[in-house]
């Protein structure tokens, strides 16, 4: 009897995965159809559906691009995935998901139905030219940035639908919408939320009204619009809300284990009068040879384990979002205003940074450790300023002698730290921030510069010192850190500034090496002169945006070699990450390895948090613009004193002196001459008269229009009050 030969086992194929498919495309070095992918991997027919799903997911993630006969690697086809940011002028920029790449310019004709905020694939059409971004064309919309759009209801159509327009002026189309709930009543001029459907033609889409927000003039409606425009979460999911509810109202004795008891030390919080969450408390003591500065920060990480529902929701939000009449916090109120808030006269868990300084305020030794503290007083900036800096008797009577002595010591140390920071070149433009005031009816009554005093500066100096100390604490242990970095200023913009200044002052020469100290010296040399406004504005525009990174590149604006965010874990997720890294460092060598994220994970976290910070800034700017335009609507026809703040080839922007508002004087409203823009001199010059306009000029303007739809204030020029300098000197 002949034995049957055993059949040889088939060589096993690699398990199907996105990584395996991407590896195949890289090895083949050409686009492939789905059939070719199955053939190359020696798969069976039953695997066809799984391959189809994997290919679709890779396209959705922007790794592959769908082409006529199959799929190709996005990177090999010069395609980049990113978020589209459309400008008011109609063109856009794609901000790549890979933070190492520069933004790609997209002409209006190449947007291909993509909206502001969409996640897209852009095909790069050419290499960047000197001083310009590479140009691209949108080839695919991976994900709409907004599933619901705030719209203004225009009118009711014959068939019962409603004609609407998106409230975002960057979305230039109309929507014919039905009501999701027929019982909801809307009226022309009101604001509603609308889910867009299919496109009808290039200028019109279908849609469904899902919610009525209310009257356009209502500030709360404007805030709801901005939150929707920027996808800012307004509700906590059930998982994170339930987790918050299970937390205790106060820490227990078990929570105090392994912590230093500092409840007897007179820590105080100093915040704004309306603040409700207090995440930092301070204390200063005199010691032989200098000072001892204690900074206690709420220990949020004790209550929010990594990967928990609360943690995942906080990460998605990235930070808290502040509006004139409301806040969307990073954590539910039970944590942000209760358990993690350093309220007076109750024990609270903290991470403490204890810094011993020399007589000049220079940190010589740092300790970081978990502790329990009890805030002895909830103070306000105004209260501290009046009692300590202005020595007002009525303000001092409300404080104990011991507290006054501690605060006076704190002021002494803060001024010394500030002097040290100034010596190393830290930049402080000290530009006023707007503050919106409301009357008893909730209407905007004024928009004025926010009042600041040295009590604000005192807390800022102590927080900067603590942030630097913690970054150094991790660096000297050779451990990972999520740094707060600020790149050097834009060299081309600085060249333009120095070129402009050197035309009127030959002693002003651009230094070979741009350092914060050199720029600080320039600002100081122009203080009180007719060029101060120009220097401050142009320097500010040359500054790049600060961001998060696992790689330490230093902080240019603060002239700091090592800097991280540590002092606000209630409202910034980045600080929570650094708290966990510090705790990992403190537990090192105890036998139980603490989880420390790798470089790639920290890079992904940094990119996400930098993106959410940009969202918060954009939302803050938008709501300020909306409130300002509404406030100015009944002032059309009035005359205002202003100063020219920015020059373009189609006009100039002005800042009003009576109210913190900015608008534009367009060249189309000026009929005395034809004007030419001189970009290297930041000027507009009349071709016939030689009349000039440039930064810092004082002018009188008339408000012609306050458009909520376009978010614009448009002015016409009434007269030139004064010139910052003679334009002939600039030629």
Automatic annotation (TrEMBL):
The gene is rnr. InterPro entries: CSD (IPR011129), NA-bd_OB-fold (IPR012340), RNase_B_OB_dom (IPR013223), RNase_II/R (IPR001900), RNase_II/R_CS (IPR022966), RNase_II/RNase_R (IPR004476), RNase_R (IPR011805), RNR_Ribonuclease (IPR050180). Its EC number is 3.1.13.1. Residues 637-718 form the S1 motif domain. Coiled coil: none annotated. It comes from Pseudodesulfovibrio mercurii. GO terms for cellular component: cytosol. GO terms for biological process: mRNA catabolic process. SMART domains: CSP, RNB, S1. It is found in: Cytoplasm. Residues 233-261 are annotated as: Disordered. 3'-5' exoribonuclease that releases 5'-nucleoside monophosphates and is involved in maturation of structured RNAs. It catalyses: Exonucleolytic cleavage in the 3'- to 5'-direction to yield nucleoside 5'-phosphates. It is an enzyme of class 3 (hydrolase). One of its GO terms (molecular function) is exoribonuclease II activity. CDD domains: S1_RNase_R. This is Ribonuclease R. Keywords: Cytoplasm, Exonuclease, Hydrolase, Nuclease, RNA-binding. Belongs to the RNR ribonuclease family. RNase R subfamily. Pfam families: OB_RNB, RNB, S1. HAMAP family: RNase_R.
